[in-house]
Amino acid sequence: MDMKATKKKLGMKERYRALTRDLGWESSYQDKDAIFPYVNYEGIKVHDWDKWEDPFRLTMDAYWKYQAEKERKFYAIIDAHAQNNGHLNITDARYLSALKIFLQAISPGEYAAHKGFARAGREFPGVGTQVACQMQAIDELRHAQTQIHAMSNYNRYYDGFHAFADARDRIWYTSVARSFFDDAMSAGPFEFMIAIGFSFEYVLTNLLFVPFMSGAAYNGDMATVTFGFSAQSDEARHMTLGLECIKFMLEQDPDNLPIVQAWIDKWFWRGFRVLGLVSTMMDYMLPKRVMSWREAWEIYGVENGGALFKDLARYGIRPPKGWDDAEKAIDHMSHQFMLGLYQWSFGTSFHSWIPSDEDMDWLSAKYPDTFDKYYRPRWAHIKKLKAAGTPFKNYGLARLCQCCQLPSVFTEPDDPTLTCHRETVYKGEKYQFCSDGCKDIFDNEPEKYIQSWLPMPALFSELGGDVGAWMNWVSLRDGDDNGDYDGSTDQKHFNEWRGLATSNL
Amino acid sequence: MQIDLRTVAIEPQRNAFDHLVRRFGDKPASRYQEGSYDIQAAENLHYRPTWDPDQALYDESITRIVMKDWYALKDPRQFYYSTYTLTRARQQDTTEANFAFVESRGLAAMMVPDLAATALKVLMPLRHAAWGANQNNTFICGYGYATVFTQPCMYHAMDNLGIAQYLSRLGLLLGDTEALEEGKRAWLDDAAWQPLRRYVEDCLVVRDPFELFVAQNVALDGLLYPLVYGRVVDDDFAVKGGSAVAMLTQFMTDWFDETRKWVDAVLKVAAAESDHNRAQLKQWIADWSCRAAAALVPVIEIALGVQADEAVAEQVEAFKARIRKTGIDL
Description:
The complex is a heterodimer.
Chain A: H1 12-19, H2 32-35, H3 60-83, H4 96-123, H5 127-157, H6 164-170, H7 174-186, H8 189-218, H9 222-252, H10 256-274, H11 276-285, H12 293-312, H13 323-329, H14 333-343, H15 357-366, H16 371-387, E1 411-412, E2 415-419, E3 422-426, E4 429-433, H17 436-444, H18 446-449, H19 455-463, H20 467-473, H21 489-502
Antiparallel strand pairs in A: 1-2, 3-4
Helix pairs in contact in A: 3-9, 4-5, 4-6, 4-7, 4-8, 4-11, 5-9, 7-8, 8-9, 8-10, 8-12, 11-14
Chain B: H1 18-24, H2 31-36, H3 81-104, H4 107-110, H5 113-123, H6 126-143, H7 147-189, H8 194-203, H9 209-239, H10 243-248, H11 250-273, H12 275-304, H13 308-324
Helix pairs in contact in B: 5-7, 5-12, 6-7, 6-8, 6-9, 7-11, 8-12, 9-11, 9-12, 9-13, 11-12, 12-13
C-alpha cells in the first residue's frame, strides 16, 4: 500500500477506517431522512451501518496509481492496434456482429451502471457502502469509455458500429438490455444493488464477460481482449461488493429475507433473458468458438452459481425461482434466437447468416439432444430457400415480451415444439409475455411494466409502419448495416483488405 | 530526411461515429469526444423512477438551469477517465514524495509546537467538509444531465475523497489518531465550526444538481481553498516556519487552480445561454457565497485571529472578480 507507516502503527483495517469510514458524521442541522430520502421505502431494515464490512480497502492514492498503470497499457495497445490495421487479424468479419451487439446494447449498460452507482454512492447512509459504490461508479464510466475507444477503430472500416448511440435508444433489440438497466435504475438503492451489484455482477457477469473476452482472444481481436484483461481487476472488486451487499442486507434483519429473495428471483430471470444475446454469440457468431453456451452454463452457471447459492443457504436464500426453467432452455435458446435474428435481419444493425455445414456439425456435437432434432431441419429449409433465390425473410413484426422485450421466440420449458406465450389482463389491457418468469415479474409490479417502451408498436404508432422511415429513424443503412453476412460490404471489404495484407496480388 | 515506413494502406470507410459527425463535422473524433458526447440514454426511457415518479430517469428539468443542449457544458481540461487518472497519478507521485520528504527529515517535529497545533486545529475538521463535498459531487454526477457535465463531477467527488484522505494522513503524521479524533469533535461541537457544518448539511438536502454545483464547487470551495490553503497555509504558516504543512497540502493548492478553470467554464456557458440562467446563477452565487464567507470567518480566525475578517473580505472581493469574468455580474 502507499500509505506510509504512522507513529502509532495502525493495522490495515484501522487505517482504512481513519481514512474513510471516520469521515462521516451524524448530522444535526438536517434530518437524516432528508439527507437520505430513498433508503427506507423499499422496506429493507438496516440497524447498524457500521456492521458493513468493506469488501476492499482501496484509498484514492492507490486507486489512481493502479488504474493509471492499467490505462497506460490499455491505450498503448489500442493505439498499436489501430496503427497496424489490427482489425485484419480477426478470424473473419462475421465475428464483428458480436462486437456490434456489444457496443449497441452492453456498453450503454456500463454507462447506466455508472449513473446508478453514483446515485447509490450518494443515497446509502453508510460511508463504507458509499465509497465502494462510488468507486464502482467511476469504474463503470471507465468501462463504457474504454469499450467505445476499443471499438472506435472498427467503426472506421466496418458497417454497423456508426450509429450505436441512435441504436441504443431506438432499435428494437437494444431495448432488451436498455429496459434491464432502466428497470434497475428506476428501482430503489437496495434493489439496484441486488440487480446490478449482485445478480448482474456476481451471478451473471462470468457468463457475459468471460465468454465474450475469451471469444475476442480466440478470434484475434486484440482491442477487445485488452479491454477485457484491463477490466478484470475492476470486475473482481465489483463482485466482492455485490456479495457483501447481499450478505449485509440479510444479516441486518430477518425481515429482509423475503424482499431480497423476491429480487433475486426477478433479477436472475431478467439477467438470464439478456444473456440470450450471449448464447447466440457463443454458438453462432464466433468464427472460432471458445466453448458452447451449454458448456459455459455448466461452468459459470451450474458450478459457480450452485456454490454461491449453497453459501447463501445459511441465510435462508434458495436458488432463484426461474433456475429450472433456465436449465431447460439452455439447449434451445441460442438456436431459437439466431433463427429469429436471421429472419429479422433486415432490421438489425449487424449481420447474421446461415451456419455452414461444418458449423452445424459442431452444433450437433455440442447439442446432441436438440440440434439435429429441432434446429438443423429449419436451417436446412432456410438454406434451400436461399439457394432457390427466395431467401427467408420475415417482414412481419415480432411480438415482444412486455417484460424482457425479446421477441417471443422461446418454447415451453417442457415442449420444444410449442412456442411459449403468456398473457395478463391489467386494467382492461392485455399484455404479452415470453415466459412464466417474465409474467411473474410483471404481475408483481404491473404499474412499472405497463410503462415499457415497446419498439415494435412504436414503429406503427410513430412511423405508420413505414420500414424505410423506421430505418432512417434508427440510422440503419439498408444494404450495408443489415442482412445476411454473405454478400455484405463487410465481407467484401474484409476479404479484399486481408488479401492486400497477406498476398502480393 | 525523413523516410516513412511502408504500411499496407487501407482506406477508412468513415471518420467517426454518426452522433459525433453530427456535432463536430465529418472528421476523426478525439477520445474525449468519443467518451463524453451522447453516451447517456436520451429517448424512450422505459420506466419512471419508483423513488420519485415525478422525475424521469434522466431528467433535465430537475434543475432550474435551462440548457438547449446540456452537452454545451464542456470540460476545458477534456478529462475522460484515462486522462483524469493519469493526471492524478502523476500528482500522487508528487504528494507521496512530499510526504516522504517531510517524514524522512523529521520536518514535522521541527515545527514550533504551537504552529503544528494550529495547523491541526484548522485542517482536521476539514476532512469532514471534504467528505461533504464528495457527497455533493457524487449527487451531481448521479442526477445531473449529460456526460460532459456529470463526468467531471464524478472525478471531482473522487478528488474530494482523496483530499479528505490526504488531510487524514497529514493529521496522523503531525498528531496521530488523537488529532483526527479532536478534529471530529471540533467539527461536531466547537462553535467555530458550526456555521460551516450547517452549510455543508444544508447542501446535503439540496436536490437541484446545478444549485448544488454552485453551493459546493463555486461558492464554498471558491472561498475555502484560497483562504485555507493559500492565505493560511501557504502564506501565514510558511512565514512562521510551517512550510512542511504547505508541502503536505500542495495537492489541494494545485487541484484548486486546475479545477476552477472547469468550474468557471461551466458557469460561463450556462450564464451565456440565457438571461434566465444568468439571473438564477447570480442569485444562487450571491446567496451561497455570502453564507460561505460568514461560515469561514471563525475557521480562519483559528489561524489568523483578528485578521480573519480582513482576509475573508479580501478573498470575497477576489471571488467576485473571478465570477464577473464568467459573465455574471456579482
